[in-house]
Amino acid sequence: MGIMTEAEAKTILDKVIKLSTADECTAQLTGSIEGNIRFALNNVSTSGVVSDTNLGVSVAFGRRVGTSSTNDFSDASLARAVKRAEELARLAPENPEFVPAVEKQVYKPSSTFSAATAAITPEQRADIAMASIAPCRAKNLIAAGFLNDEQSFVAFANSKGAFGYQRSTEMDYTCTVRTADGKGSGWVARNLQDSTPFKPASDIEIAMRKASASAEAQALEPGKYTVILEPAAASGLISFMFNFFDARAADEGRSFLSKKGGGNKLGEQVYDPRVSFISDPWHPDLAVLPWDGSGRAREKMAMVENGKIANLMYSPYWAQKQGKKVVGRPGNIIMSGGTKSTADLVRETERGILVTRTWYIRMVDPQTVLLTGLTRDGTFYIENGQLKYPIKNFRFNESPVIMLNNIDDLGRPVRVSEGGGMKYMIPPMRVRDFTFTSLSDAV
User: Which of 171, 253, 284, 348 is 20 to 30 A off residue 120, Cα-Cα?
Assistant: First the structure.
């Protein structure tokens, strides 16, 4: 079925709620139509379209909770799904952290849907793949990439009268370009809600230039360097850090935001004063659903303001326990910045290292958010405002908290693709004393 209209979704959800005899019932419908095309070695390898729709039912008898799911929306199947959830709830132990479902909410719609993205055809996907492959073939370079476009909907209702419905779209494109001998590599990625401005020819040109320029990389001694992190490179570290913006983890001493002696660092200076992060469901370039995972209406709010922690996430249980307002998981994070491009930052750098991308990032110490990972796909030495020569990739050991205290300059924020269910806008940044610990032979 893929995408339901609001009326279709509400009809099914209302049936489910009426079928339940539990103290409370929440039902959610999700559906998507995803198209994709993959290419490697300058040839398309796979393509297809996947459609899916699913119903989840959650009920509670007191503090006993049961859930079930189905993709059959006949009346008999809906009845079975409700009955199964209720059977499981009666068998389940009491949840000591149970919090009742949200009351009826008012949601301000956000612009998460683009007709152009929803209308992408197989022919358009093939054209994008060819626009990536053809220039590489002409220059004896090798392209490998993936395009995924999705239109989706989510609708939920509960027995307290809350109801929400919204459609969304998203497009993700990545392409790695290698030299024929495998010694040089370049990479680009785009994440868009509206595919209209996407021009693969200009993106692939960047990856091609980096691939050609990064061959014959020279070794540079590991150590602390001034680095320019492109947005995709910086976001890999910053997105890790936001996994620890949970008040409970901080209050229980399990986070870099834990305070000695107990409590958290809400309101304290943790970063350089130029560092600010907000969450805004209605941001014109990064709109997300106007409700969180529990159905609570989202608000625009500061997470970090002038380097100080402005808000932490409070789950309904922890907020109730601590006497605080519930702050759900935000759908997006937008970091403040300036107007400069990555090229502008390079031109203003006397000596440093340009990092295109960070990858294979792993946690070393959650108390400091010390991370380890590798650079890849184009790492260059900068001298007197120019990319002087390519250098071998490094392993780094660095904390984004320390990194955001060593800011030299910030560029213009751009939308980047990150996992974990949260979307980001991150600027390129020049950072002092970034720690590289060893060399890597990978390109």
Answer: 284
